[in-house]
Amino acid sequence: MSGNSLDMVIGAGSAIGHALIERWSREGATPILAVARSVEAMAAVEPLGVQTQQCDYCEAALSALAAQLQEQSADITRLVICNGVLQGEGYRPERALNQLETSAMEQVFEVNTFLPMRVLASLAPVLKRSAAPRIAVLSARVGSIGDNGLGGWYSYRGSKAALNMMLRCAALEMRRVNPAAKIMAYHPGTVDTPLSKPFQDNVAPEKLFSPARAAGALDTVLSGLKADGELSYLDWRGETIPW
Q: Which helix (H) or strand (E) holds 109?
């Protein structure tokens, strides 16, 4: 990696992350750094002409990545954190209290809440010195407390609500150290990805977005953000979601 301006996608192996990298690579205006956990994910984006970095998202690996960026005087223009999980091996979204299991909750919170915040914490020195970074972290509408009229999905809802609160803290801190920065908690809609696959039967076809469409909407909303020292909680249309 070299140069100053840099776009970054964390979670480049996700469907939205990959589609966003494809979109940005066609623009060709700013170098792109794609960060992913798996070698396979990096191999998938390398043909797009982007720089890649394998990272297991532990504190040590993220600190090393941040140190590398600082050494290169990287100026992060756009940062999108795409990591997220709804269900996994041996656990599904809980519909009732008696389905709650500590190990499952820990896994969901690890990916949805702790991982994105570790990324932001590690990159904070770089973001502090960047000219006008625009930061999007994939949240979800179901993380809204005010919009929750159905219940269920305890861990997923809770992890996204916790993410939103921590992003709010980050936005207030960033306002003090870099007023030109802007952070957004973003709901991409229902995207045709492995995460949503088990639940797509209940989604109208016109409301199920391809990864390319989702990436386009995210890019549009991100580009329209204005630095105001606040955390924005927006959906794919750019509309505000209640906390």
A: helix 102-109
